[in-house]
Design goal:
28% strand; 260 residues
């Protein structure tokens, strides 16, 4: 089905727009842009060069996709912003493209970015995440799937957040937040397991007990991260979630959040 494009939208003729899209008046789309099928682009949205958007995305008023990176190292390189499928990106969101040639800022599939969220250059966000009102994610961050950021969270550069973590409102952090936890406070600390999401993901009660035990060993003693990993390997039965925790811990470069 042909797309419905307002003649009052400003669209470079080189832009590639899929089928069954609806583009409202006063949208602005530059030439080096690809938009998939079944997307809705509301008024006053700007989609800038280097944007590659999949299918079924809805972009609300005053959002900017593929904005020039807010990075002093940016020298005009050709870079990309990758948006997957079925994302809901609300009003006044800004997503910057990457800084260096060949780089990508990536938003996966089925994410929900609420009003005023900002995703900076080279950050990678996986699938089914929620970015609450006013949440700001700095450059070069890595965000797993099923992560929920409450309102006004600030994630500093190069931080990582593991799958199915929940970040409390107003949290400001630069340390890594591992999978399946609730995190908050200043400095950011371990606030227990994210049992609501674990239940929704079908993680068994037995597996959740093993996860809780792993984090008890890591956060409730005076051990280093390395000692904590060793104790988890020695004392917690192996499983998919435990393996994921260990892999995340072994990959930390920023250090981890503190115990509560």
């Amino acid at each position: 089905m042909a797309s419905e494009i307002s003649n009052r939208a400003e669209i470079d003729p080189r832009a590639k727009i899929g089928n069954n899209c609806k583009i409202y008046p006063f949208a602005y789309i530059e030439g080096d842009v690809v938009i998939g099928d079944d997307c809705v682009i509301y008024p006053f949205v700007s989609i800038m060069n280097g944007t590659r958007m999949g299918n079924g995305n809805t972009i609300y008023q005053n959002t900017v996709i593929g904005a020039t990176p807010q990075d002093f190292d940016f020298e005009g390189a050709t870079t990309e912003t990758i948006i997957g499928n079925n994302n809901n990106i609300r009003e006044n969101v800004v997503i910057n493209r990457a800084t260096n040639a060949g780089g990508q800022t990536v938003i996966g599939n089925e994410n929900f970015l609420l009003e005023g969220a900002h995703v900076s250059h080279d950050t990678k966000i996986a699938d089914k995440c929620v970015l609450g009102y006013g949440t700001k994610i700095a450059g070069d961050c890595e965000i797993g799937s099923n992560v929920v950021f409450s309102a006004n969270v600030i994630v500093n550069a190069k931080a990582r957040v593991g799958n199915a973590a929940f970040i409390k409102p107003g949290t400001n952090f630069r340390k890594d937040v591992p999978p399946f936890v609730v995190a908050g406070g200043t400095p950011v600390g371990y606030n227990g397991l994210n049992n609501v999401i674990l239940d929704a993901l079908g993680i068994t009660e037995k597996a959740q007990k093993h996860i809780a035990n792993a984090y008890r060993l890591l956060f409730h003693g005076q051990t280093s991260v390395e000692d904590g990993i060793y104790q988890i390997k020695q004392q917690v039965p192996p499983g998919e979630e435990i393996d994921e925790i260990i892999e995340f811990l072994e990959g930390t470069k920023n250090g981890l959040m503190t115990k509560l």
